[in-house]
Structures are given as structure tokens and as C-alpha cells.
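Inputs:
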Amino acid sequence: MTDTTHQAAVRSAAGPEPAVPVPVPAPRRTRVWRGLTPWLFLLAPLALLITFTYAPIANMVAYSFTDWDGVSPELHYTGAHNYTELFTRPELFEVFWVSGYYLAASAVQIAAALYFATILSFNVRFRNFFKGLLFFPYLINGVAIAFVFLYFFQDGGTLDSVLSLLGLHSDHAWLGTPVSANVSLAGVSVWRYTGLNFVLFLGAVQSIPGELYEAAELDGANRWQQFRHIIAPGIRPVLALTVILSISGSLSAFEIPYIMTGGATGTETFVIQTVKLAFQFNKTGLASAAAVVLLLIILAVTWLQRRLVPDDKVDLV
Amino acid sequence: MNRRTVLAVAAGTALLLSGCTGTGGTSKGAEATAPDDPSKVSGTIKVLTQRTDLVQDGTMKKYAAEFNKTYPKVKVEFEALTNYEAEVKIRMNTENYGDVLLIPAVIKKNDYPKFFASLGTQAERSRKYRFTDTTTVDGKVYGQSPIGVSPGFVYNKKVWREAGVTKWPTSPAEFLDDLKAVKSRTGATPYYTNFAAQWPLTSWTYVNGSPSCDTQATTKLADGDPWAKGTDLRVGDTLLYDIVHQGLAEKDPTTTNWELSKPQLAKGKIATQWLGTWAIIQFQDAAKKAGVDPDDIGFMPFPAQVGGKFCAVVGPDYNQAVNVHSPHKEAARAWIDWFTDKSGYDKDNLAISPLKSAPLPAVLKPYEEEGVKFIEVSDAKGAQVKEIDDQSEVGIYKPDYRQDLVDLARGARKGSLDDFLAGLGRKWTEARKTVGS
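Outputs:
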């Protein structure tokens, strides 16, 4: 800067030049570097993102227009044939009824997570212990959870033993009928994901400034009123996000039912069906099309939800 | 360039790149010839195997050491894959799938020449070996199974004796009566489906050939409705349905456990399971570990007789093949020949030898005494059957439809057996038209 002012001063002395000092542009090299620097920083993440996210998706979309079987060196372009096949076979979409169980379960899950997040945001004894306890299931690997619960639901397994301690001698095959199996599996997913929702809610609740509670208490608001008028509006964006995640999660439920039942006894979800098409019946093309359709369905549902419940800026104060 | 164009270009490149997959060069039609002089052949070969247990406990290394006595310059390395089918399937898209591998079920028979080197003509190899038929394309053989297996019921002799059954049942109805006797006279579970493990249900497909004692059973699958009245699969599936429907199977099939079922059968808590000769050794081991007599593990054929004789189908296990891209095809071929002929792998596993000249293993002695007839089912139309199976999504080599069958039998699914099997037949015959013969 000093340099520029000096130059300007010299020039104005030399002749009738404009008196306002014009900043001289930085040298070309510097400008190039300035433009390039952010991209250099982005190089690594972008390379990873493109290699492991966009390229596979592009690949999948490309496969969805072929009849590839997954191994053969030959594949033929078949146009939209896979998509017409998908949409002319309604039985392929019947499995979405199973998602209903998971959707109902996510409602329970969000309610439970919200309840615990609110309670534990107040001063409760052992609150850190309870926080850990609630979040813990989310840290366990999904495959391990599936195996643990396979023993849990076994005939004479953990659940039956606990029930018999309480005097209930049930002879119920928990994974035996479609309704019972789906409810059991959805229960497992509630157990697993409540912790995640809980942590999200807790973070949001704790970001609400403490003065608001104090002011509310001075005004004589009870706990329910505090929740209704301070916490609920304060965590609305997080709540909306959780709902979106739950819906897309229910539509694409996979891990737990796949390992526990393999989709038997009416527990097949859309993703399990897609995996079976690709890896059992070697219809990689059709399965790719199914995956693309699922992606579009989830995008559409999300869009619809954003239209119905717009995400306004929340201003508590 | 603004930001959007950069991203668009990147995405476009990704699309272009992806367009290149699946079009690797092919070196079709190579041959893996047996070396003339064992002392000269050299190289390091990698052998892919599904037997993780044998690699871990060093058994495979012992085979390799034995192999090196004849072929001193060949170094053999093993790679055990826990989930063999799924892992190899992905690697088949590259050229790196070992030098010797087991032919995965997913590869279409007509594609064999693109992936594997030929081991010789069928005319020549079939004189010495069994099962050449399953891997023959245009008169050339591409794989060889080191063992032969025969499907059948593994059962606990003691439990069956206690139930008062001393003779093998000769018809499905008699078999059901015997299971009922087991149920009422002993505390054992008469039959265990292993529903949750899935593949034990799949093995019911290997009933094919036994009830009719027909070497053309597989051809008939390709040419007609596999569930028409009197067909092998219908006989087998009806038996499975009746077992479950009459309450002769385990109480809660959805939470079964394969590993646990072995000691349970050995100890007599389970009486019977439909598996294959390959399973005998595993159950005997389980018996030894549980401290009970391994001789109580029995094996019986499918309960059906043709002309007063039982019929047992002998088929190959996984076939070993040479990678067509392997730089050491001679060494790889030497391994396959040695492993098939001289390793003793078949005897170690109490299995049927792949050599036509070899005698039956000792575990099948009761078969010889009963005069059980051994047949090999022709695989001439095997490729077509697989294609119809995939196209129809019925899955006779997959567990799904039999899981549905078991659910149907125990009332967790609505419908009748006849409608269910007719539905399968309809899907099958429709797909058969589109696949074309």
C-alpha cells in the first residue's frame, strides 16, 4: 500500500493525472496463484469424491441401460428396457409396504430421542452416564448388532428368558410370521438409531441460550411450556433433517434385515430385492435401474417434504 | 472457467471413464498343457480356495510341500476367500484371479474359454476322470473337480435305532412315518431345516435325478416344467413341505444355527438333515469334539426306489481351473493334475474320488451293501438351466423359494402347495420361451 501511494504521489507531481490513487493490480503470477490455491486445497477431497462417489454413480446409471450380468466381458446397450421392465412389474414395488414398519418405527424413535434429549438437557442426576448409555448402540457395528439380536430373538433366547423371569412364558417365534418379524426387525433399528437422533437433538437443545429458560422460569413457565415454546421451535431445523433421514432410511432399510433374515418371511426390503437381482440372479443392469429408481424416489420424497414443511429461519429472541 | 463448468467437466470425465469398464481384452482359447518334465517347470502360482480352514491350519501347506517333491521349482501360494463366490465374482472383471481358481457359479458356461485355459479335450479326459461333462465347452474341458459329492440325508443312527427304524425308508411316505416315530419315541427334533443358513435349503435342488434315477434329469429341467406332476423337484419339494407341515422340523426355523446343528445332530438332539457326503466328515468331527461316537453319524439316500434300488447322484464339487491370463499355465496345470490324482485330498475328506478307476470311500460302504445305484446326471443343458433360473428369478440354486416353501408349510404364508409349485412352474416356462434353446 505504501508503495502505491508513493507512486501515485510521484505521478501527480509529474503532471495533471487524476488525484485519486488507483491500486495497481497484483502481478499476474500472484493472481494465478490466488485463483489456484483454493482448488489445490480441494484437489484431494474432490479426487476422492469423484472417484468414490460420482464415478460409481455414473457407472451405475450407465449399467442401468445395459443387460450386463456382472461378470461377462460383453454387455449390450438395451436403452430404457430395464426401466420399462421395472415399471411393468408391480410386484417389485410391493416390498415398499415393508418400509411402512420402519417408517412407523422411526416415528417412535424420533419421539423417544426427543424425550430423552429434553430430559437430559435439564439437570438430571447421572445425565452423562445416561447420555453414554443412549448413544452406545449407535457405535456398535451393524453386523454385530444383527448377530446379537439373532440370539436375542431365538427360541429360548435372551428375550424369552427375560420374559420368563417376569413370569411370561411366551412360546412366540419372534421372527416366525411376517408381521412379528418386521416388528422385531424395526424394533432393532429403533434400538440402534435412537442414539444418533438423540445426540442430534441434544446438540440442538443445548445450543439454545440459557437465559431463555431463566426468563421463562421467571415468567412462571413450567417444563412442558418450556418445551413447547422454546425447545421445539429451537430445534426445528434439526427435527426436519432427522425426519428426512428417517424417511430415506426406512425406504432403504437393508443391513439388519439382510443379515438377520436375508429377506425371508416377508421381510424383504427394496434394497434387499435389488441386491438379490444383482448378485443372485445376475441381472446387474436391472438392479442398477432399480437403484436409480430408489434414488429418484428418495429425492422426490425429500423434495415433497421440503415443500410441505419449509425450513424457515428460526429466531427465538 | 467458473465453478459450475469445472464440476460439469469433472462429472463428464467420470462418465467417460465409466464407459470403459467391462471391456477388457480377451485372450480366448489358450491351453494349459501338462509339463513333460516335472523337474523343469517353474514359477510362482497362486491358488484361490474357499477352504479357509485348511489354509489356516496348515493343511494346504502340507499338500504344497508334498507337491514340491515332484515339482521342486514351482512355488505354490494359497489365498483363502471367506465369501468365495462374492469375492471372486468381482475379481473376474480383472485379470488377477489367481493362477488356479475354482470356477465360480456366476460364470456362464459359454464364457469359460474367455476366463480359463483348456485342460484338454473331453474325449481324452473322460476316459480317466469323472464330471468332465460339467465344464466342457465345444468339446474342450475347462475344469476338474478334485472330489465328487453325493447328496443325501445325514442322520444319527442311534436316534433312528431308538425310534425302531432299522431299514432305510424306500418312499417319501415311509420316510415321514419314520420321522414321526423319531418324534414320538425319542426327544429328538426329527428334521432340521437350517432355514436361517439358507444354503442347506438350496441343497434340496440336488434331489434332482434321485427319485427318477434319470441321467437326463437336468435336461428335463431345461425342456419342461420342473414342478409338473411326478418330477424330481416336485417329489423333493413336496417331501420338504410335508416334513415342515406335519411338525417334524424344528420349532422356530427362522433362528437356526448351522454350526450348532452339527454337535446337536452328533449328540442326538437332531435326528436328520438333508446335506451331502461332504458333510459327513464335519459331523464326525463335531461328534469327536462333543465326546460321542463318530460312527453314529449315518448317511442315507433319498427315499425313493426305481426297480427296487436306491439311486444316488454323484456330482462334482467346485471345479479347479487355470486362469487364461496366467503366465505360468504349465505350473498351474501341474498343480491341478497333482491335486486331483495324487494329493489324497479326496480321501482326507472321505469323498468320492474324481478318478473313474478309484474305489468308493469307506463311508459309502452301506451304500454298496444296499446295492445303491450311482449315476452321473448329464450337464449338457446345465448352462441353459442356469440361464432360465436367472431369467425367471425362481432361483432353484438360490434359497429364496424354499424359504417361502417352508413358510408356506408352517402357515406363515398363505396359499396351497399346489398353487405355489404351479406358480413356480409358470414363471419357469415363461422364462424358458425368452431364453430360447
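Remarks. Chain B has 19 helices and 17 strands. Residues 58 and 64 of chain B are 10 Å apart (CA to CA).
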